Amino acid sequence: MDLSIAALLTQDGITNGAIYALLALALVLVFAVTRVIWVPSGEFVAFGTLTLAALQLGKTPGTVGLLVAMAVVAGAMEVIACVRTGETRRIPRSLLVWVGLPLAIAAAVYALAPLSAPLPVQVLATLAAVTALGPLMYRIAYQPLAEASVLVLLIVSVAVHFALLGLGLWFFGAEGSRTPPFSSFSFSVGAVHVNLQSLLVVATSVLLILALYLFFGRALYGKALRATALNRVGARLMGVSPNFAGSLTFTLASLLCAFCGVLIGPITTIYYDSGFLISLKGFVGAIIGGLASYPLAAAGAILVGLIESFSSFWASAFKEVIVFTLIIPVLLWRSLTTTHHEEDE
Amino acid sequence: MTAPLLEVADLSVAYGKVEAVHHVALTADAGRIVTVIGPNGAGKTTMLGAIMGLLPARGSVRYMGEPLERLTVEQRVARGLVLVPERRELFAAMSVEDNLALGAFARRREGERATKATLAEVYGRFPRLEQRRGQLAGTLSGGERQMLALGRALMGRPKLLMLDEPSLGLAPLIVKEIFAIVAQLRATGVTILLVEQNARAALQVADYGYVLETGDVATHGPAADLARDPKVAATYLGIKAA
Question: Over its length of 345 residues, how does chain A's per-residue pLDDT go in tens digits?
C-alpha cells in the first residue's frame, strides 16, 4: 500500500464515516429522549435513497403510498384517543397535524414526480417525505407505550423494522437503485486525488452536526428535548409533554436518516432491505459513545468508516466481520470503566 | 366571596390496593398560603401528585372552577399550576440559566420579552442564582438547588404554586431564608399550597393549615389557631400540653 492508496481509503472511510455519524447521532438522540433503540433507522436511510432514485426516474416513489397509509392509521388513532379522553374539540387540529400535513407532503411529491425537477428540488422533496414518516411512526408504534421498559420498546423496534421491510418491498419493489453523484468533479492535491462528491458529503454532515449543536444549545425546543432526556418528570412539570418531545425527536432523527439516504445513494446501490446493515454501523458508532455522548458517537462512527474502508482493502471478505467485532472490545472497555450511578437530583 | 382557586373534594389516591390518601377535602383561596402538615407517610406528597396529575386519583379537583380530572400534567402547567417536587427534579447537566429558561417553557408563545422580564425578576429575588447562571445545576449546593427549583417554578408565572417540603435536607439558616422568600411571594398574589414536615415554620408563614395523618385530614383551621391547638402543639411542635 502506498500513500495514494492510503489517501483514497482514508477519503472513502471518512466519507462513509460522516454518513454513519449522522445515523449515530440520530440513534443517540432517539435513545436519550424516548429510550427507544431505534432499529428501523436503516429503513429510513434506504427509503431516502429509493425516494430520490424514483424521483430521478420520473416515477412516483413508494414513500407517497407509505405516507398516505401511515397518515390514515395515525389519524384514526388520534380520533380514538380524543374521543376516549372526551376532548372532541381537539379532533380537527389533530387531523390537520397527523393527516393533513402528511397528505399535503405526499400530494406535493406525487405532483413533482413526473416533472423531472432540478436535483435540489428533488432532494428537498425526498427529505420532506421521509422526515414526515418519522413522527407518524412514533405516533403509531411508540407513543401508545411510551412508558414501557427499554426492553419492550426494543421489541417494538424490531417489529417495526420487520414491518417496514415488508412495506418497503411492497411500496418500492425489489430492484436496487443508485443515484448519480451530485458532482463528478475531482482534483488532486499532490499525489492525493480528492472527489468533490466526498467533500460535499463531509461538508453536509458537518453542517448538520453544527446545526444540531446550535439547536440543542440555544433553542428552547432543543433545551426541552435535552431536559426530557435528563429528567422526564422534571420536564413534564415544566409543561414539556413526553409525546411532544417524542414526535419532535423522531422528526429530527428521521430528517438525519433522510439526509443519510440522499448522501449514500451515489456511493452504493441501495435495496429496500439495505438499511439494516447501514444502521448497524451507525449503532457501533453510537455504542462507542455509550448511547449517550454525541461527540463520542460521531467520532466512533468516523472510526467505523475508516476501519471498514481499510479492512475492505486488506481483507475485503471479512470487512463486515471486522467492523462488528470492533464492538466487543468497546463493550468490554465500557463495562469496565462505566460506574453505574443513581440519577442524582 | 369569590370561588376558591383550588377546591379538592373527596380525593382518594391508591398505589395498587393500598390507599394512601382517603377522601381528602381541601380548599385554597386566591392569594393565600395554605399549608398541609403531617408526619412522614401521611400522604402529603401523594396528594400533591394527584392534584398535579402525576398520579391517578378518584374524587374531584377543581381549579378556578374548572374540573381538572381530564387534563394532562402539561395542560395543568399551562393553566398556571406549578409543582416544586420534593426531589426538586432539576436538569442537573444543564446550566442554571437553561433550567430557568425551561421554567418558562409553558409560556413560550408569550415571546422572549415576557420571559426575559420574569428572568430579571427571579434573579432579583435570588441574586445567588444570577451569580451561578452559567454553572451546571448539578454542582449547586442544597440550598441553591432549592432556590433554583423555586426560581424555575416562578418562571412559569404560576397562579397556584405547590411546594413539597421546601425545607427538606437544608440547614436551619437556609430554611429560614426559604420561608422568608415564601412569605414574600404572598405579595405577588400567587396562591401557595405548602406541604411541610417542619410544622412550626409552615404554620408561621401560612394563613390556613391542614393536618394530614395516615391519609386523612385530622384537623384544619387558621394557621394561628392550629399553632395554639394543644394536640397539634404536642404532636408537631414538640410543646407539652399544660
Answer: 788 888 889 999 999 999 999 999 999 999 999 999 999 999 999 999 999 999 999 889 989 999 999 999 999 999 998 888 777 888 888 899 899 999 999 999 999 988 888 989 999 999 999 999 999 999 999 999 988 899 999 999 999 999 999 999 999 988 888 888 887 788 887 777 788 888 889 999 999 999 999 999 999 999 999 999 999 999 999 999 999 999 999 999 999 999 999 999 888 899 999 999 999 999 999 998 888 888 899 999 999 999 999 998 888 888 888 888 888 888 888 888 876 655 443
Interface of B with A in 133-192 (CB under 8 A): 138, 145, 152, 156
Name the residue in chain B with its Cα closest to that of A83: B70
C-alpha cell at position B134: 452559567
Give this complex's ipTM. Answer: 0.90
Same domain, B72 and B165: yes
Q: Is residue B202 part of a domain?
A: yes
B28 plus B55 within the same structural domain: yes
Give the dihedral of Cα atoms B101, B106, B111, B115; nearest 10 deg.
-40
Nearest to A237 by CA among B147, B95, B83: B83
- Count the domains in chain B: 2
CB contact under 8 A, B92 and A230: yes
Q: What is the pTM for the complete model shown?
A: 0.89
Q: Which whole-number Å values give the CA distances from B39 to B17, B165, B195, B230, in the listed order?
A: 22, 12, 11, 17
Query: Of B107, B123, B157, which one is at a domain's C-terminal end?
Result: B157
DSSP secondary structure string for all residues of A306-331: HHHHHHHHH-GGGHHHHHHHTHHHHH
Nearest CB to B105 within list A86, A231, A239 = A239
- Establish, for the pair of chains A and B, how many residue pairs have beta carbons separated by less than 8 Å: 77
User: Could B74 and A345 be called an inter-chain contact, meaning their C-beta atoms sit closer than 8 Å?
Assistant: no
Q: Which of B140, B157, B174 is the last residue of a domain?
A: B157
A238/B77 Cβ within 8 A: yes
